[in-house]
Design brief:
The structure is a single chain. By secondary structure, the chain is of the alpha/beta class. The chain has a single domain (18-289), classed as 3-Layer(aba) Sandwich (Stationary-phase Survival Protein Sure Homolog, Chain: A), CATH 3.40.1210.10. 26% of the residues lie in helices and 22% in strands. The protein has a 9-stranded mixed sheet with strand order 3-4-2-1-5-6-8-13-9, sandwiched between helices. The radius of gyration is 20 Å and the shape is globular. It starts with 30 loop residues before the first strand and ends with a helix.
Length: 292
C-alpha cells in the first residue's frame, strides 16, 4: 500500500499526452521513469539518476533487492511500496516486486499517467542477444514500457565476469560508469527531443569495460542462445558465475560481436511487434477441419 501523500501529482507540469514518435514540447517538463533490476541502492541507478535530472523530472521506482534474471515476470503475491531515499537524498519508491511490476505500479498507481520516457539501468552486466532480451529484468522493464507505448531505453555496463556473491558489482564506482552514463544521457536527450526512431520500441545500450566514445556501433540483436551455463552444486545445478567470454560467438554486426570481439559500445534497436504469418497456417487449418 502507498499513502495518498506518496502519489506524485504531475498535472501542473504537463497535461499533454504523447505517442512514442512525438518529441517533447520545449515548454513542457518531461517525466522520466527510472527502473533497474540490481536493486534500488545500486550505484548504476544512482549514477544514472544524477545525470538524467538535468533532462526532466525523475521518478525512481525499483525493486528493493536485486531481481536479475526475472525477465518480464510479474509478482502474484502482495507487493509493498515503500518511500525511501537514495544516497543523494532524493526520494524514490522501493517495491517488493519485479522491474516489470515497477513499471506497472508507477504507470497505474504512483504517476497515474504515462511517463515521457522509461530508462532502465544501469544494469551491472551485459544484456546481449535474444536470451538476455527475454531473461533480463532490466529489459523486462523496457519491454513492459514498450507494450504500453512508452519510449524505452535499456542501459547495461558489461562487467566481463560476475562470480558468486557478486563482488565485481560491488566494486563498480560512479567514476567507472561515467562513459555509460554519458551515452545514456545523450540517447535520452535525443529521444526526448526527436521521439523514438522509426519502428524502434526499445534502444538497448551495452557498454564494455575500458572502451571509449570512438567505438560506437549500431548493431542487430543476436539470435544465438546461451550455452551450458549451469554448474554442479550438491545434488543439483546452479549458475555460479556470469562471464562475457561464455556468451556464444556470432557474426559481425550483432550486439554480441560488437561487445565481445570488437570491445565496442553496442546500440541495438528493438521492435516488439512480432510478425504473424497467418497464411502459412492455412494448410494446418485444412487439416484441423478434416473429420477423422
Amino acid at each position: 500500500m502507498i499513502s495518498r501523500s506518496s502519489v506524485i501529482d504531475i498535472s501542473r507540469e504537463s497535461k499533454v499526452s504523447y505517442n512514442r514518435s512525438t518529441k517533447i514540447r520545449d515548454d513542457v517538463m518531461p517525466t522520466i521513469l527510472l527502473i533497474n533490476d540490481d536493486g534500488i541502492h545500486s550505484v548504476g541507478l544512482l549514477a544514472l539518476k544524477k545525470r538524467l535530472t538535468k533532462l526532466g523530472r525523475i521518478l525512481v521506482v525499483a525493486p528493493k533487492e536485486e531481481t536479475s534474471g526475472v525477465g518480464k515476470a510479474l509478482t502474484t503475491r502482495q507487493i509493498n511500496i515503500t518511500e525511501t531515499g537514495l544516497e543523494d537524498g532524493s526520494k524514490a519508491y522501493a517495491i517488493t516486486g519485479t522491474p516489470a511490476d515497477a513499471f506497472l505500479l508507477a504507470f497505474n498507481k504512483i504517476m497515474k499517467r504515462s511517463p515521457d520516457l522509461l530508462v532502465a539501468g544501469i544494469n551491472m552486466g551485459p544484456n546481449l542477444g535474444i536470451d538476455d532480451l527475454l531473461n533480463s529484468g532490466t529489459l523486462g522493464a523496457a519491454l513492459e514500457a514498450a507494450i504500453h507505448h512508452v519510449p524505452a531505453i535499456a542501459v547495461s555496463y558489461c562487467i566481463p565476469e560476475i562470480t558468486e556473491n557478486q563482488p565485481e558489482k560491488m566494486a563498480v564506482t560512479e567514476k567507472e560508469l561515467e562513459l555509460t552514463v554519458t551515452i545514456a544521457e545523450k540517447t535520452a536527450q535525443y529521444v526526448l527531443n526527436k521521439g523514438m526512431p522509426l519502428e524502434v520500441d526499445i534502444i538497448s545500450i551495452n557498454v564494455p569495460k575500458d572502451t571509449d566514445f570512438n567505438a560506437v556501433k549500431i548493431t542487430s540483436l543476436s539470435y544465438e542462445g546461451y550455452g551450458d551455463i549451469h554448474s554442479k552444486l550438491g545434488n543439483g545445478f546452479m549458475i555460479k558465475k556470469w562471464m562475457l567470454a561464455n556468451y556464444p560467438d556470432d557474426e559481425m554486426g550483432t550486439d554480441l560481436y560488437a561487445v565481445k570481439k570488437e570491445k565496442s559500445i553496442s546500440i541495438t534497436p528493438i521492435k516488439i511487434r512480432l510478425p504473424h504469418n497467418r497464411k502459412s497456417l492455412e494448410d494446418l487449418l485444412k487439416t484441423l477441419a478434416t473429420p477423422r
